[in-house]
């Protein structure tokens, strides 16, 4: 009897975990299933199954252009956010730096500010400094949002870095820049890979900031949103499924690279 009561919390936790997992996965599974429906409306039962919607999406010029545009913005955002995030993390982790807590708080502020507020403030800012809406404004906003995640991941990795690694490189004749490139960067690589992949995924998925700051060329979330306004169809489900599968594969591969780099 005592063993039963001892195992009860573990059983409840396990059941709660699987119920929560089903709650997360079930809507995605329904969305993916509807993308194979032959009819041009979303409703059960599915009836006949088809892959025609995927063929239509992959031959859709708008979808391909929006995907390439979103990837380009994501790559530019990742490069900028990684450079700025590493610089801030090194600054906060350095000794004899005044106001490190304030610097860290300001760097992480975009991560806790609601996306709508962030988008409105960025829209006011670009109008104040006379920056036109469009690609540059989107990259600027996405970078501001992505920097905190790079900072946190890099700082976490820096805390575990032995101080004598850089000292040893300096003793062997390396100047600070060479020591940074050959010692610090390789040690930070697992955190950098994770942060960069996270930047790519968050940028591609960002709708609110892009909606407020975008120009005439739509990103992938804006294209899907525009199509939803005309009514749901299996074509939209096919688009969403392709995005879901690609981002999941990229995320899992990033996790694999991060684990392998740490070993």
UniProtKB/TrEMBL annotation:
<feature type="transmembrane region" description="Helical">
    <location>
        <begin position="179"/>
        <end position="204"/>
    </location>
</feature>
<feature type="transmembrane region" description="Helical">
    <location>
        <begin position="138"/>
        <end position="158"/>
    </location>
</feature>
<feature type="transmembrane region" description="Helical">
    <location>
        <begin position="68"/>
        <end position="90"/>
    </location>
</feature>
<keyword id="KW-1003">Cell membrane</keyword>
<keyword id="KW-0813">Transport</keyword>
<keyword id="KW-0812">Transmembrane</keyword>
<feature type="transmembrane region" description="Helical">
    <location>
        <begin position="12"/>
        <end position="34"/>
    </location>
</feature>
<comment type="similarity">
    <text>Belongs to the binding-protein-dependent transport system permease family. CysTW subfamily.</text>
</comment>
<dbReference type="Pfam" id="PF00528">
    <property type="entry name" value="BPD_transp_1"/>
</dbReference>
<dbReference type="InterPro" id="IPR000515">
    <property type="entry name" value="MetI-like"/>
</dbReference>
<keyword id="KW-1133">Transmembrane helix</keyword>
<dbReference type="InterPro" id="IPR051789">
    <property type="entry name" value="Bact_Polyamine_Transport"/>
</dbReference>
<feature type="domain" description="ABC transmembrane type-1">
    <location>
        <begin position="67"/>
        <end position="254"/>
    </location>
</feature>
<dbReference type="GO" id="GO:0055085">
    <property type="term" value="P:transmembrane transport"/>
</dbReference>
<protein>
    <submittedName>
        <fullName>Spermidine/putrescine ABC transporter permease</fullName>
    </submittedName>
</protein>
<feature type="transmembrane region" description="Helical">
    <location>
        <begin position="102"/>
        <end position="126"/>
    </location>
</feature>
<dbReference type="GO" id="GO:0005886">
    <property type="term" value="C:plasma membrane"/>
</dbReference>
<feature type="transmembrane region" description="Helical">
    <location>
        <begin position="236"/>
        <end position="254"/>
    </location>
</feature>
<dbReference type="InterPro" id="IPR035906">
    <property type="entry name" value="MetI-like_sf"/>
</dbReference>
<keyword id="KW-0472">Membrane</keyword>
């Amino acid at each position: 009897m005592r063993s039963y009561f001892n195992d009860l919390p573990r059983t409840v936790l396990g059941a709660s975990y699987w119920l929560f997992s089903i709650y997360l996965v079930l809507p995605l599974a329904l969305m993916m299933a509807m993308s194979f429906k032959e009819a041009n409306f979303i409703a059960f039962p599915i009836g006949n199954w088809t892959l025609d919607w995927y063929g239509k999406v992959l031959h859709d010029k708008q979808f391909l252009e929006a995907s390439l545009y979103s990837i380009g913005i994501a790559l530019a955002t990742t490069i900028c956010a990684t450079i700025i995030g590493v610089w801030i993390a090194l600054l906060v982790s350095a000794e004899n730096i005044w106001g490190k807590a304030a610097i860290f708080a300001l760097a992480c502020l975009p991560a806790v500010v609601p996306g709508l507020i962030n988008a409105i403030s960025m829209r006011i800012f670009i109008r104040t400094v006379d920056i036109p809406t469009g690609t540059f404004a989107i990259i600027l906003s996405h970078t501001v949002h992505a920097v905190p995640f790079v900072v946190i991941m890099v700082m976490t990795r820096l805390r575990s870095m032995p101080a004598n690694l850089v000292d040893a490189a300096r003793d062997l004749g390396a100047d600070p820049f060479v020591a940074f490139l050959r010692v610090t960067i390789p040690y930070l690589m697992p955190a950098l890979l994770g942060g960069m992949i996270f930047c790519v995924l968050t940028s591609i998925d960002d709708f609110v900031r892009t909606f407020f700051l975008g120009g005439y060329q739509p990103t992938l979330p804006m294209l899907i949103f525009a199509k939803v306004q005309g009514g749901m169809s299996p074509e939209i489900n096919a688009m969403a499924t392709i995005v879901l599968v690609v981002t999941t594969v990229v995320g899992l591969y990033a996790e694999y690279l991060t684990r392998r780099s740490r070993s």
